[in-house]
Amino acid sequence: MAGQEFPAKQIVASGSEQFGVAWADSMYTARQQGVELVALATLFQVNPTAYMVHSDSGIGGVEDFPGKRVAVFYGGGVEVEYRAMLAAAGVDRSTIIETPGEFSMEPFLRRRVDVWPVYATDQPRAVRQQGAEIDLIFARDYGVVMMGDVLFATSTFIEENPNTVRAFVEASLRGWEWALANPEAAVDLVAEYNPELDRDQLTFEASQTIELLTYGPGARCVGYSDPAVWEAEHQMLLDIGVLEAPIPFEQVANNSFVEGYYAAKGIDCEG
Fold first, then answer.
1. How many structural domains comprise the chain?
2. Which end of the chain is more exposed for a tag (fewer CB within 10 A), N or C?
């Protein structure tokens, strides 16, 4: 899976680019490191990670991980969620046989690894097409709800270029709204520019992406950063030791552009 996040944070922080996309937790960890990144829109209200197991493996949940070989993508949000899920399930990490994840899923398909993190938006379908019978385990089933992709920029760029930021956020929201209202046309557009991709796979990915966008607060306002949801993730990051000290919501997320976009349509994102 794409478990190692593309270094969007470093690129935006350096000023090489003005906007980036990364998981919500990285806004907190960047701020802890002194890098002032701010989420402008929470796109994926829940992240797409699932933990894939063979249906005949006898692994029905996280409580069955001890003694099993589990692939881990170290150093990013996927590992953070994994740690939080183990803590929520009361599973001692030292009882698990961990192995570094890799791009190829051959170790899982050949049963050299028992549990494999995947993005539920695409990889499970591809594995099933290869004949594997699999089940998926989700961290949210254990009360761990981590957000996925957020659109972000540096606090300095936001302060100095509010009109540019507003235009970019609103264009992004219009694009997502169009895709939600016209999923088949969105698939057509992606296929047009990527003819090598399988259309059925793209259609599946579109259906899964819609669920991520409209989960929870996204059902009312795509892109809205719900302070309560962010605070829950913030507390979880503190509980598992990822954060050393509390960080206020206002330092890592800015709702004004999303709220302004929907207010012009007569929609109150806070409900």
1. 2
2. C
